Protein backbone atom coordinates (compact mmCIF):
# COMPACT_ATOMS: atom_id res chain seq x y z
CA UNK A 1 0.00 0.00 0.00
CA UNK A 2 2.82 2.39 0.80
CA UNK A 3 4.19 2.01 -2.74
CA UNK A 4 0.83 2.99 -4.23
CA UNK A 5 0.52 5.92 -1.82
CA UNK A 6 3.89 7.22 -3.03
CA UNK A 7 2.80 6.68 -6.64
CA UNK A 8 -0.36 8.70 -5.96
CA UNK A 9 1.70 11.49 -4.37
CA UNK A 10 4.04 11.55 -7.36
CA UNK A 11 1.02 11.68 -9.69
CA UNK A 12 -0.31 14.81 -7.94
CA UNK A 13 3.16 16.36 -8.13
CA UNK A 14 3.58 15.64 -11.84
CA UNK A 15 0.01 16.61 -12.68
CA UNK A 16 0.39 20.02 -11.04
CA UNK A 17 2.87 21.16 -13.71
CA UNK A 18 0.38 20.32 -16.45
CA UNK A 19 -2.63 21.65 -14.55
CA UNK A 20 -1.16 25.11 -13.90
CA UNK A 21 -0.09 25.55 -17.54
CA UNK A 22 -3.27 24.11 -19.06
CA UNK A 23 -5.58 26.19 -16.84
CA UNK A 24 -3.75 29.32 -17.95
CA UNK A 25 -3.97 28.30 -21.61
CA UNK A 26 -7.68 27.64 -21.11
CA UNK A 27 -8.24 31.33 -20.32
CA UNK A 28 -6.25 32.26 -23.46
CA UNK A 29 -8.45 30.10 -25.59
CA UNK A 30 -11.70 31.09 -23.93
CA UNK A 31 -10.86 34.61 -25.15
CA UNK A 32 -10.26 33.28 -28.66
CA UNK A 33 -6.44 33.28 -28.71
CA UNK A 34 -4.26 30.20 -29.31
CA UNK A 35 -0.74 30.46 -27.86
CA UNK A 36 1.55 27.66 -29.02
CA UNK A 37 4.47 29.19 -27.13
CA UNK A 38 3.80 27.35 -23.86
CA UNK A 39 6.96 25.25 -24.12
CA UNK A 40 9.19 28.29 -24.56
CA UNK A 41 7.47 30.29 -21.82
CA UNK A 42 7.78 27.39 -19.37
CA UNK A 43 11.49 26.98 -20.12
CA UNK A 44 12.23 30.69 -19.65
CA UNK A 45 10.22 30.68 -16.43
CA UNK A 46 12.03 27.56 -15.20
CA UNK A 47 15.45 29.20 -15.49
CA UNK A 48 14.14 32.54 -14.18
CA UNK A 49 12.71 30.87 -11.07
CA UNK A 50 15.72 28.62 -10.53
CA UNK A 51 18.25 31.45 -10.93
CA UNK A 52 16.25 33.66 -8.55
CA UNK A 53 16.15 31.03 -5.80
CA UNK A 54 19.85 30.17 -6.22
CA UNK A 55 20.63 33.88 -5.88
CA UNK A 56 18.19 34.89 -3.12
CA UNK A 57 17.32 31.63 -1.36
CA UNK A 58 13.63 32.58 -1.41
CA UNK A 59 11.29 30.09 -3.12
CA UNK A 60 8.37 32.50 -3.42
CA UNK A 61 10.52 35.09 -5.15
CA UNK A 62 11.46 32.31 -7.55
CA UNK A 63 7.81 31.53 -8.30
CA UNK A 64 7.13 35.26 -8.75
CA UNK A 65 10.07 35.54 -11.16
CA UNK A 66 8.80 32.56 -13.15
CA UNK A 67 5.28 33.95 -13.38
CA UNK A 68 6.67 37.36 -14.40
CA UNK A 69 8.87 35.83 -17.11
CA UNK A 70 5.90 33.95 -18.55
CA UNK A 71 3.68 37.04 -18.38
CA UNK A 72 6.24 39.26 -20.16
CA UNK A 73 6.72 36.78 -23.01
CA UNK A 74 2.96 36.32 -23.30
CA UNK A 75 2.45 40.10 -23.37
CA UNK A 76 4.90 40.38 -26.29
CA UNK A 77 3.01 37.59 -28.05
CA UNK A 78 -0.28 39.34 -27.32
CA UNK A 79 0.82 42.64 -28.82
CA UNK A 80 1.96 40.88 -31.98
CA UNK A 81 -1.19 38.83 -32.57
CA UNK A 82 -3.85 41.19 -31.15
CA UNK A 83 -2.65 44.58 -32.35
CA UNK A 84 -0.35 43.74 -35.26
CA UNK A 85 -2.55 40.83 -36.40
CA UNK A 86 0.28 38.37 -36.95
CA UNK A 87 -0.68 34.73 -37.41
CA UNK A 88 -1.36 33.21 -33.98
CA UNK A 89 0.03 29.78 -34.82
CA UNK A 90 3.23 31.00 -36.45
CA UNK A 91 3.86 33.57 -33.71
CA UNK A 92 3.30 30.96 -31.00
CA UNK A 93 5.73 28.56 -32.64
CA UNK A 94 8.29 31.36 -32.94
CA UNK A 95 7.84 32.16 -29.24
CA UNK A 96 8.38 28.51 -28.34
CA UNK A 97 11.60 28.31 -30.37
CA UNK A 98 12.78 31.64 -28.96
CA UNK A 99 12.14 30.46 -25.40
CA UNK A 100 14.10 27.25 -25.94
CA UNK A 101 17.12 29.19 -27.18
CA UNK A 102 16.94 32.00 -24.63
CA UNK A 103 16.59 29.64 -21.67
CA UNK A 104 19.56 27.57 -22.86
CA UNK A 105 21.70 30.72 -23.20
CA UNK A 106 20.72 32.21 -19.83
CA UNK A 107 20.98 28.89 -18.03
CA UNK A 108 24.58 28.07 -19.02
CA UNK A 109 25.96 29.23 -15.65
CA UNK A 110 23.29 27.42 -13.61
CA UNK A 111 23.61 23.85 -14.90
CA UNK A 112 25.66 22.74 -11.88
CA UNK A 113 23.99 25.07 -9.38
CA UNK A 114 22.11 23.65 -6.39
CA UNK A 115 19.07 24.97 -4.57
CA UNK A 116 19.30 25.68 -0.84
CA UNK A 117 18.01 23.08 1.60
CA UNK A 118 14.30 23.33 2.36
CA UNK A 119 12.05 21.97 5.08
CA UNK A 120 9.71 19.22 3.80
CA UNK A 121 6.06 20.26 3.70
CA UNK A 122 3.67 18.72 6.21
CA UNK A 123 0.19 20.28 6.08
CA UNK A 124 -1.06 20.77 9.65
CA UNK A 125 1.02 17.79 10.78
CA UNK A 126 -1.28 15.45 8.86
CA UNK A 127 1.60 14.15 6.77
CA UNK A 128 2.50 11.79 9.64
CA UNK A 129 -0.72 9.79 9.18
CA UNK A 130 0.22 6.36 7.81
CA UNK A 131 -0.25 5.82 4.06
CA UNK A 132 -2.64 8.72 3.30
CA UNK A 133 -0.43 11.28 5.05
CA UNK A 134 2.50 11.12 2.59
CA UNK A 135 0.07 10.84 -0.34
CA UNK A 136 -2.12 13.82 0.45
CA UNK A 137 -0.53 16.09 3.05
CA UNK A 138 3.15 16.33 2.17
CA UNK A 139 2.59 18.13 -1.10
CA UNK A 140 3.87 21.58 -2.03
CA UNK A 141 1.27 24.33 -1.45
CA UNK A 142 0.99 24.89 -5.21
CA UNK A 143 -0.44 21.37 -5.57
CA UNK A 144 -3.43 22.50 -3.51
CA UNK A 145 -3.28 25.87 -5.26
CA UNK A 146 -3.82 24.20 -8.65
CA UNK A 147 -6.93 22.48 -7.30
CA UNK A 148 -8.27 25.76 -5.91
CA UNK A 149 -7.44 27.51 -9.21
CA UNK A 150 -9.55 25.00 -11.13
CA UNK A 151 -12.48 25.53 -8.77
CA UNK A 152 -12.00 29.29 -8.96
CA UNK A 153 -12.04 29.26 -12.75
CA UNK A 154 -15.24 27.20 -12.79
CA UNK A 155 -16.85 29.85 -10.59
CA UNK A 156 -15.36 32.73 -12.59
CA UNK A 157 -16.29 31.44 -16.04
CA UNK A 158 -19.83 30.29 -15.28
CA UNK A 159 -20.95 32.35 -12.28
CA UNK A 160 -19.58 35.86 -12.80
CA UNK A 161 -20.16 38.72 -15.22
CA UNK A 162 -16.43 38.87 -15.99
CA UNK A 163 -16.45 35.22 -17.02
CA UNK A 164 -19.49 35.79 -19.21
CA UNK A 165 -17.75 38.72 -20.94
CA UNK A 166 -14.60 36.65 -21.48
CA UNK A 167 -16.58 33.82 -23.05
CA UNK A 168 -18.51 36.34 -25.18
CA UNK A 169 -15.23 37.72 -26.52
CA UNK A 170 -14.16 34.19 -27.41
CA UNK A 171 -17.46 33.36 -29.09
CA UNK A 172 -18.17 36.60 -30.97
CA UNK A 173 -15.70 39.48 -30.54
CA UNK A 174 -17.75 41.62 -32.96
CA UNK A 175 -20.83 41.35 -30.75
CA UNK A 176 -18.80 42.05 -27.61
CA UNK A 177 -17.31 45.12 -29.29
CA UNK A 178 -20.77 46.31 -30.31
CA UNK A 179 -21.81 46.13 -26.65
CA UNK A 180 -18.92 48.40 -25.70
CA UNK A 181 -16.39 45.90 -24.33
CA UNK A 182 -12.67 46.50 -25.06
CA UNK A 183 -12.09 43.23 -26.90
CA UNK A 184 -8.37 43.71 -27.52
CA UNK A 185 -7.60 44.59 -23.90
CA UNK A 186 -9.66 41.65 -22.64
CA UNK A 187 -7.79 39.31 -24.97
CA UNK A 188 -4.45 40.76 -23.87
CA UNK A 189 -5.37 40.28 -20.22
CA UNK A 190 -6.32 36.66 -20.90
CA UNK A 191 -3.05 36.04 -22.77
CA UNK A 192 -0.95 37.58 -19.98
CA UNK A 193 -2.78 35.50 -17.36
CA UNK A 194 -2.14 32.38 -19.43
CA UNK A 195 1.54 33.27 -19.71
CA UNK A 196 1.82 33.86 -15.97
CA UNK A 197 0.31 30.43 -15.27
CA UNK A 198 2.69 28.79 -17.75
CA UNK A 199 5.48 30.66 -15.99
CA UNK A 200 4.32 29.39 -12.61
CA UNK A 201 4.26 25.86 -14.02
CA UNK A 202 7.80 26.26 -15.36
CA UNK A 203 9.07 27.56 -12.03
CA UNK A 204 7.35 24.67 -10.22
CA UNK A 205 9.12 22.28 -12.56
CA UNK A 206 12.63 23.55 -11.75
CA UNK A 207 12.03 24.30 -8.06
CA UNK A 208 9.83 21.42 -6.87
CA UNK A 209 9.20 18.68 -9.44
CA UNK A 210 12.85 18.23 -10.48
CA UNK A 211 14.76 20.78 -8.35
CA UNK A 212 17.56 21.56 -10.77
CA UNK A 213 18.19 23.26 -14.09
CA UNK A 214 18.86 21.27 -17.26
CA UNK A 215 18.54 22.61 -20.79
CA UNK A 216 15.21 21.57 -22.35
CA UNK A 217 13.92 20.17 -19.06
CA UNK A 218 10.27 20.94 -19.88
CA UNK A 219 10.56 18.06 -22.37
CA UNK A 220 7.25 18.51 -24.17
CA UNK A 221 5.07 19.26 -21.16
CA UNK A 222 4.04 22.57 -22.73
CA UNK A 223 2.67 20.70 -25.74
CA UNK A 224 0.84 18.22 -23.52
CA UNK A 225 -0.71 21.16 -21.63
CA UNK A 226 -1.94 22.57 -24.95
CA UNK A 227 -3.42 19.20 -25.87
CA UNK A 228 -5.11 19.03 -22.47
CA UNK A 229 -7.32 22.01 -23.23
CA UNK A 230 -8.78 20.15 -26.22
CA UNK A 231 -8.88 16.85 -24.35
CA UNK A 232 -10.89 18.55 -21.59
CA UNK A 233 -13.15 20.36 -24.09
CA UNK A 234 -12.24 23.70 -22.49
CA UNK A 235 -13.59 22.82 -19.01
CA UNK A 236 -11.42 23.60 -15.92
CA UNK A 237 -12.52 20.54 -13.91
CA UNK A 238 -11.76 18.19 -16.78
CA UNK A 239 -8.38 19.83 -17.27
CA UNK A 240 -7.48 19.08 -13.65
CA UNK A 241 -8.52 15.44 -14.01
CA UNK A 242 -6.71 15.16 -17.33
CA UNK A 243 -3.54 16.64 -15.83
CA UNK A 244 -3.54 14.00 -13.10
CA UNK A 245 -4.22 11.30 -15.69
CA UNK A 246 -1.19 12.31 -17.72
CA UNK A 247 0.81 12.84 -14.54
CA UNK A 248 -0.06 9.29 -13.50
CA UNK A 249 1.04 7.91 -16.88
CA UNK A 250 4.34 9.80 -16.50
CA UNK A 251 4.96 8.37 -13.03
CA UNK A 252 3.87 4.91 -14.09
CA UNK A 253 6.99 4.52 -16.23
CA UNK A 254 9.22 5.00 -13.16
CA UNK A 255 7.05 2.69 -11.07
CA UNK A 256 7.24 -0.06 -13.67
CA UNK A 257 11.00 0.33 -13.94
CA UNK A 258 11.33 0.10 -10.15
CA UNK A 259 9.23 -3.06 -10.16
CA UNK A 260 11.59 -4.62 -12.69
CA UNK A 261 9.04 -4.88 -15.50
CA UNK A 262 10.88 -6.10 -18.60
CA UNK A 263 9.92 -3.31 -20.98
CA UNK A 264 12.56 -1.21 -22.77
CA UNK A 265 13.05 2.14 -21.00
CA UNK A 266 12.53 3.97 -24.30
CA UNK A 267 9.03 2.53 -24.60
CA UNK A 268 8.21 3.57 -21.02
CA UNK A 269 9.49 7.09 -21.70
CA UNK A 270 7.12 7.30 -24.67
CA UNK A 271 4.02 6.53 -22.56
CA UNK A 272 2.93 10.15 -21.77
CA UNK A 273 3.24 11.19 -25.41
CA UNK A 274 1.57 8.05 -26.72
CA UNK A 275 -1.30 8.68 -24.29
CA UNK A 276 -1.62 12.24 -25.64
CA UNK A 277 -1.78 11.02 -29.25
CA UNK A 278 -4.30 8.29 -28.43
CA UNK A 279 -6.59 10.67 -26.53
CA UNK A 280 -6.50 13.30 -29.29
CA UNK A 281 -7.16 10.64 -31.90
CA UNK A 282 -10.20 9.40 -29.98
CA UNK A 283 -11.54 12.93 -29.54
CA UNK A 284 -11.06 13.67 -33.24
CA UNK A 285 -13.48 10.87 -34.08
CA UNK A 286 -16.29 13.17 -32.94
CA UNK A 287 -15.62 16.61 -34.49
CA UNK A 288 -19.14 17.80 -33.65
CA UNK A 289 -18.35 17.45 -29.94
CA UNK A 290 -15.28 19.65 -30.35
CA UNK A 291 -17.15 22.30 -32.38
CA UNK A 292 -19.90 22.53 -29.76
CA UNK A 293 -17.43 23.18 -26.93
CA UNK A 294 -14.69 25.12 -28.73
CA UNK A 295 -14.83 28.96 -28.62
CA UNK A 296 -16.15 30.02 -32.02
CA UNK A 297 -13.45 32.66 -32.68
CA UNK A 298 -10.53 30.51 -31.47
CA UNK A 299 -7.43 31.29 -33.53
CA UNK A 300 -9.20 33.88 -35.66
CA UNK A 301 -7.90 37.47 -35.86
CA UNK A 302 -10.17 40.28 -34.82
CA UNK A 303 -10.30 43.67 -36.54
CA UNK A 304 -12.26 46.33 -34.61
CA UNK A 305 -15.16 47.63 -36.63
CA UNK A 306 -15.16 44.66 -39.03
From TrEMBL:
Note the topology in the membrane: Multi-pass membrane protein
GO CC list: plasma membrane
The regions listed as transmembrane in this protein's record are 6-26, 33-54, 60-84, 91-111, 142-158, 185-206, 212-232, 239-257, 263-283
Q: Name one GO molecular function term.
A: transmembrane transporter activity
Location comes to: Cell membrane
Kindly give the Pfam families that the UniProt entry links to this protein.
BPD_transp_2
Top-level lineage group: Bacteria
Q: Which UniProt keywords apply?
A: Cell membrane, Membrane, Transmembrane, Transmembrane helix
Q: What is this protein called?
A: ABC transporter permease
Protein's organism: Ottowia oryzae
Amino acid sequence: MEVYALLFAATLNAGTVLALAALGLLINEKAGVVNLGAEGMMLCAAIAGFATVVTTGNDWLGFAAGALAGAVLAAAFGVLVIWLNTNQYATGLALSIFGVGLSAFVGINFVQAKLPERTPFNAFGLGDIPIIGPALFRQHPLVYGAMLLALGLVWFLYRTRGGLVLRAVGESPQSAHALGYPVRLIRLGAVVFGGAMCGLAGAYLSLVYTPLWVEGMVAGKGWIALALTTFATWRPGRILLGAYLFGGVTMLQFHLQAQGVQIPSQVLSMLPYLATIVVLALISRNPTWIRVNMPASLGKPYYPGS
